[in-house]
Amino acid sequence: MHQIIPILDKIAFLAFIVTTMFGTGLKLTVQQIWQPLHNIRLVVLSLLTNFVLVPLFVYLLVLVIPVNEPVKDGLIIMALASGPPALPKLAQIVKGNLAFSTGLMMMLMFGTIFYMPIVLPLVLQGVEVNSWDIAKPLILMMLTPLGIGLLIKAKYENIALNIQIITFKISNFGLLLGLGMRLIVHFNEIIILLKTGVIFVCAIFIIFSFTVGYLLGGPGIDTQRVLGVGTAQRNFAAALLIGTSNFDDPNVISVIMVTSLLMMISVLILGKKLPELHQGQGVDLEKVEVS
């Protein structure tokens, strides 16, 4: 049983990412993805938020709050890794702008590929990062299925509409199964982080990231939601790759995995609360919801 759970976790993660990206391609066109990125102010603020404000805040946070070295390393790696693979799915959950979420994810993902090899060795001694090692799995798992989906959408729109339902169900199942498996696999680590108080440092990390992303994510509610959740959920695939290839201490990997899990759970909770909050404020969600 202990051997099956990690395998199910990997299968669920792969199914979730691939079907999410494939399904996103089935819904959009290249022009729709590119259009939101024409807003230069929004692009600049997105880059500033993810590559300057969040990493700087977390770096100062672990200096102010005493944590051990593995926790510090794990949190800094997560802070530097932007462009979460799950962003299009998260945008759907919080009723955000799907096209912007896809364009933002790609922009941040490519930024991370070049940003981390430069910055990470400056803040963590002894770490070596190869850009291609980060890019390979991201291209395979994300860009390839997205491109196939876009191609089908452009050539065979009726087929794309029919496939969307299937991919949506597989993506949701992969997300729920993956969360369940990771809760089981990392339950002991969560308890340890809770006992030592580190989980509260993770909570501060998540709250700050979401807040700064949300506040700087204008011009509309739908883009605010996307930048908020897209900043709060980091690129755990890139972070995990760096953690496993550079650190012998398993606690570094545990911090990365648990922080990523907490981020995902937090976003799922926000996904239920944000629409209710804006409805309570009299905002017409039909005008901002992406079908």
Main sheet overview = none
Structural class: mainly alpha
The averaged pLDDT comes out at 82
Q: What is the class in the CATH system? A: Mainly Alpha
Set down the secondary structure blueprint.
Layout: H1 4-27, H2 30-34, H3 40-64, H4 69-80, H5 87-93, H6 98-123, H7 131-155, H8 157-185, H9 187-196, H10 198-215, H11 221-232, H12 236-246, H13 250-280
Subcellular location: Membrane
Transmembrane segments: 12-30, 42-65, 98-122, 134-153, 159-180, 192-216, 252-271
Keywords: Membrane, Transmembrane, Transmembrane helix
Q: What report would you give on this structure?
A:
Helices cover 81% and strands 0% of the residues. With 291 residues, the protein is mostly helical. The protein has one domain: Na+/H+ antiporter like fold. Helix 3 runs antiparallel to helix 4, helix 5 packs across helix 6 and helix 7 packs antiparallel against helix 8. The radius of gyration is 18 Å and the shape is globular. The C terminus is likely disordered.
List keywords for this structure.
about 290 residues, BilAc:Na_symport/Acr3, membrane, Na+/solute_symporter_sf, transmembrane helix, mainly alpha, globular, transmembrane, Na+/H+ antiporter like fold, disordered C terminus
Kindly summarize this structure in a few lines.
The chain has 291 residues and is mainly α. The protein contains 13 helices and no strands.
